[in-house]
Amino acid sequence: MTLFDPNYLISKTMRRTLLSLIFCTLGTILFAQENRNIEISKLVINSFQKNEFPKIFETFDQNMKTALPAEKLKLAWADLNNKCGKFQKMGEITVGKVQTYDVTYTMCQFENMKLKMKLVFDKDNKIVGLFFVPENQQ
Description:
Order of helices and strands: HHHHEEEE
Strand order of the largest sheet: 1-2-3-4
CATH class: Alpha Beta
CATH topology: Nuclear Transport Factor 2, Chain: A
Number of helices: 4
Shape: globular
CATH architecture: Roll
Number of domains: 1
């Protein structure tokens, strides 16, 4: 085949189109997963504010459900509010990756300090880790 052979040009054009479609599809999938995790992060914060701990519990994977049942989650939230002051507002949510896990970091303003809520997600968008860390820590 030469550059002027019509089969070569069609083949090359089709390959470019196919590669473009693949990259667009992958980008859309990754963007959708990030958006889903951000929505779950908002749901968790809003549920904490409303003391709706069973809603948070439903976002957990099975290991988290065993380790942190709704009643323990309620106690942990009360303890955090006692130590840091009452929760005031949610701030910016950023996304990242730790090893093979997707992670969201949500800025949280309490009366006495700012913390980040770090949520770690598995491939099924279930929470496998929940942490409150200093605002400058990842």
